[in-house]
Design a protein that fits this description.
Layout (H helix, E strand, L loop, with lengths): L2 H13 L3 H13 L5 H13 L3 H11 L5 H17 L2 H14 L14 H17 L3 H14 L4 H13 L3 H14 L3 H13 L1 H27 L1 H14 L4 H18 L8 H26 L1
Length: 299
């Protein structure tokens, strides 16, 4: 039997739930002189099915130094899976505690789940339930816990992004999908991520602008505190160049200009409210013009 045939048969036996026969076949192949890292990898996989995890761990640890990149990658992934397998009992305790904090009754994560792969799948099912029932905060918490715990499915990140969208955090969600679209190993994950990015393109742009506007306003408050209203006025005038339709920036700018005029102009309070408003609008225009001229000269 050729090496390729041995590997195919070993995989078939393992998939049929007969890991002991798969292991025996691999032992025989090695006794006949076959030497290959994939034989070792398949031996480790059969050992895992036989609950001989420490033996499997030693084999994959040796394969981490293989010259074959695919073998090294497979060994690392399987070592990570073994590490998760050893912690399933503690995972049950941790997730139950998290669910209690979130006032969520777990439905898919049940005590009889003893394998990491089953636990991961149940986490994804639980995420779908929480989202469908209007609890995206719970979805997000579960997915972030799972990722921090070491689970590797890219669908965990996808569900995290969907929870973020439900919480109106579209920019963050698109950041997650952008990474998945570029790096996910599964084509269906890349396709789903690309589709969500396309669907949410306008909303992402809109929210990104809103976040920049909010950051600019918060910076204006900090500038007022640290450098005074005159510096903040210049900052907000620059902001109006970036966001000419922003009523919030204009309102903040007018408030600062009003404060400054009240402090510096002894006749300010003699003006009618209408006259004050007209003068402030002129000053807003002048400040934006100064900001624009400053940009032109520095450019």
């Amino acid at each position: 039997m050729s090496l390729h045939q041995v590997l195919e048969e070993a995989i078939r036996l393992r998939d049929d739930g007969r890991p002991e026969l798969s292991l025996a076949l691999l032992d025989q192949a090695e006794a006949e002189g076959h030497r290959d890292g994939w034989l070792t990898d398949n031996r480790a996989r059969a050992l895992v099915q036989l609950q001989r995890h420490e033996e499997a761990k030693r084999l994959w640890t040796d394969l981490k130094s293989s010259e074959d990149l695919a073998l090294r990658t497979a060994a690392l992934q399987n070592l990570q899976a073994l590490a998760l397998e050893a912690r399933v009992s503690s995972f049950h305790i941790e997730v139950q505690a998290l669910a209690r904090e979130l006032s969520w009754e777990l439905e898919r994560i049940r005590p009889e789940l003893i394998h990491a792969s089953e636990f991961e799948f149940a986490l994804l099912e639980e995420a779908l339930l929480t989202r469908e029932r209007g609890a995206p905060v719970t979805t997000l918490a579960l997915m972030e816990w799972a990722i921090a715990a070491g689970f590797q499915s890219p669908w965990l990140e996808d569900n995290r992004a969907r929870a973020l969208v439900a919480m109106d955090r579209v920019v963050e969600a698109c950041g997650v999908w952008r990474v998945l679209a570029e790096t996910a190993a599964l084509e269906e994950v890349r396709t789903a991520a690309a589709q969500m990015l396309k669907t949410l393109q306008r909303e992402e742009q809109k929210q990104a602008a809103q976040l920049k506007e909010q950051a600019l306003l918060e910076q204006g408050q900090e500038v007022t505190r640290t450098h005074g209203p005159q510096a903040a006025i210049a900052h907000l005038a620059q902001g109006l160049l970036l966001f000419p339709d922003s009523s919030r920036i204009e309102r903040n700018l007018i408030d600062l200009l009003r404060q400054l005029r009240a402090e510096q102009d002894q006749h300010w309070m003699d003006l009618t409210p209408w006259m004050q408003d007209q003068e402030l609008l002129v000053e807003v225009f002048e400040q934006v013009l100064l900001a624009s001229e400053g940009q032109s000269s520095s450019g």
